[in-house]
Amino acid sequence: MTVEFILRIVVAAALGGAIGLEREYRAKEAGFRTHFLVGLGSALFMILSAWGFEDILTSGLTVRLDPSRIAAQVVSGIGFIGAGTIIFQKQRNVVKGLTTAAGLWVTSAIGMTVGAGMYSLALTATVLVLICMETAHFIHPRREENHPDEE
User: Fold this and answer.
1) pLDDT tens, 35-78?
2) Which residues of the chain are under the pLDDT cut of 70?
3) SS3 label, residue 28
């Protein structure tokens, strides 16, 4: 099972990295490294949550464990990282970084999905994220391109 777990964290890191490359290319707040680490960490937490306590369960003790408990905390914790990418620019009355925060959130979900062994679902979600990011960029050009900063 160890080889399978290693494969899962590698795939999760690669899928997160793919999303991060798009963010890096667009010079956004969180790029390749951040998304790579979020995907990897989320998969690792999911694996730990589901299989990390197997020795306790097979010890003969009557123990009740909830494998979704750690995963649920990842969802809460990623919100703090995402919040760090959101900036309010008072002089322009604009909020920036929401898409990057949402990208980190979905990257975490993709990592958890890979950690659970659902590769096809995670790959499909990654492709959809990339399509969304690229399509949205061409349909809705950035506001800064339309309204350059005043000096």
Assistant:
1) 999 999 999 999 998 888 777 767 777 777 777 788 888 988 89
2) 57, 88-91, 141-151
3) coil
pTM: 0.82
CA dist., res. 67 & res. 120, Å (int): 22
pLDDT of 147 reads: 40
Paired tokens of 40: 């990897």
Instruction: Please give the torsion angle defined by the CA atoms of residues 12, 15, 19 and 20, in that order, rounded to the nearest 10 degrees.
Output: 60
Phi (first) and psi of residue 95, to 5 degrees: -105, 125
Residues in the chain: 151
Q: Report how far apart, in Å, the C-alpha atoms of 131 and of each of 11, 86, 115, 151 are.
A: 19, 22, 23, 35
CA distance 78 to 41: 10
Q: Which residues of 125-135 are buried (b: 16+ CB within 10 A; e: fewer)?
A: bbeebeeebee
Kindly state the DSSP code that residue 10 receives in the 8-state scheme. Answer: H
How many angstroms separate the CA atoms of 101 and 48, rounded? 25
